[in-house]
Amino acid sequence: MRKVWVYKRKNTKGWWCGWYESGKRKAKALPSKALAEHYRHIKYTQLNSDVFTGTVTIDWAQMHEEYMHYKKIKGDEQATLYEIALTLRHFERLIGRCSSRQITQNTIDKFILDRGKEIKRSTLNKDIRNLRAFIHWCRKNRYLNGEIELSLLKEDEKPIKSLSITQIQELLTTSIQFPSLRMRILLALGTGLRRGDIESWRVSDLDFENSSVTTRSTKTRKSMGSRPVPVPIMVELKKYVSGLPPEQDKIFKRGFNKSRWDKVRLKVGLSDFKFHDLRNYAEFLIMPSRLSCFA
User: Fold this and answer.
1) What is the pTM of this model?
2) Residue 8 lies in a domain
3) Which domain holds residue 175?
4) Domain count, the chain
5) pLDDT band at residue 158, thresholds of 50, 70 and 90?
6) Same domain, 132 and 178
7) Is 290 exposed, middle or buried (0-12, 13-18, 19+ CB in 10 A)?
8) Residue 220 has pLDDT above 90, yes or no
9) What is the distance between the alpha carbons of residues 26 and 76, in angstroms, rounded to a whole number?
10) Which DSSP symbol is given to 41?
11) Mean pLDDT confidence for 118-147
12) Are 58 and 143 in contact (CB under 8 A)?
């Protein structure tokens, strides 16, 4: 039996988990004793995998708690943890607080069928991905025995909504009464960025001399480096920024106003058009022959 222990180092914050592997002493730092104990349990199982060959049955509450601890230790983002917790909550609602022994192919199939009656396939596929990772973790910790198949469902291809140059000009003209919304529309059309990425822009990210912006993805949390912005849009952006209070760091002080967007798009006759759809026109509109529509 290979031992794993939890200890605290003098004059050092946090707790440590120690073990011997391949004749060398190793250690891992954790922020709290509870997480260190949880990691000790996982590491002990891994090191003694050649000793333990049976399946351990645990109840839903313990399984749920241990898995969420595991995901936190991995450093998953808060948004990811929320989606995982939401999937497990729906599973508990539709299937019940079952033990690890009761999680079978039949219960998984029943969840997918019942959940599929409530949501779209794209959303259901998110639940399937979360469940697949959860089941893989359960099997790794010997809480489950036997194979369980979980395949993503085929989604219908979404047709790209058509938008003419005239409609784009009408959209920009109608949104003049809402300067911040108009600026968002221009940036979405000219850069192809997601709305969340545009919202995160700061004045310090802008390089007016080189007509570019240094930005980061709110979805991947990674820097996207310097990104070119069409000169006509950069001119409009410079005018907009010059009217901001000197102490304001972010380009948009307030969040996206959906009611204003709805008012503008409905007035133009775009009843089923989403702000996100503006990204589809970025590459088409940055061509020199098309830039006149931004004026």
Assistant:
1) 0.51
2) yes
3) 165-294
4) 2
5) low
6) no
7) middle
8) no
9) 24
10) H
11) 90
12) yes
CATH of the domain at 282: 1.10.443.10
Within this chain, do residues 250 and 174 fall inside the same structural domain, yes or no?
Answer: yes
Residue 210's CB: how many other CB atoms inside 10 A?
11
Classify burial at 189, counting beta carbons within 10 Å of its beta carbon; exposed 0-12, middle 13-18, buried 19 or more: buried
d(CA 289, CA 40) in angstroms, rounded, equals: 63
> What are the strands, taking DSSP E only, across 64-185?
none
**19 and 129 in a common domain:** yes
- Residues 77-115 have pLDDT tens digits of 888 999 999 999 999 999 999 999 899 999 999 999 999
The confidence score (pLDDT) of residue 7 equals 93
Dig out the tokens for 131 from the structure.
Answer: 């469940």
| 194 in the same domain as 104 | no
Instruction: Please report whether residue 214 resides in a domain.
Output: yes
- Per the domain annotation, does 87 fall within a domain? yes
CA distance 291 to 230: 8
What pLDDT sits at residue 286? 46
- Do 184 and 198 touch, CB atoms closer than 8 A? yes
pLDDT digits (tens, 9 = 90+) for 22-57: 778 999 999 999 999 998 888 887 777 655 556 778
Q: How far apart are CA 110 and CA 190, in angstroms?
A: 46
Spatial contact of 60 and 99, defined as CB atoms under 8 Å apart = yes
Measured distance CA(217)–CA(253) in Å, rounded? 19
- DSSP letter string over 202-215? BGGGEETTTTEEEE
Residue with tokens 């697949």: 132
Helix (H, G, I), strand (E, B) or coil at 225: strand
CA distance 26 to 14: 16
**Residues of 91-112 as b/e, b for ≥16 C-beta within 10 angstroms?**
beebbeeeebeebeeebbeebb
Query: Exposed, middle or buried: residue 4 (CB in 10 Å: 0-12, 13-18, 19+)?
Result: buried
27 and 80, same domain (yes or no): yes
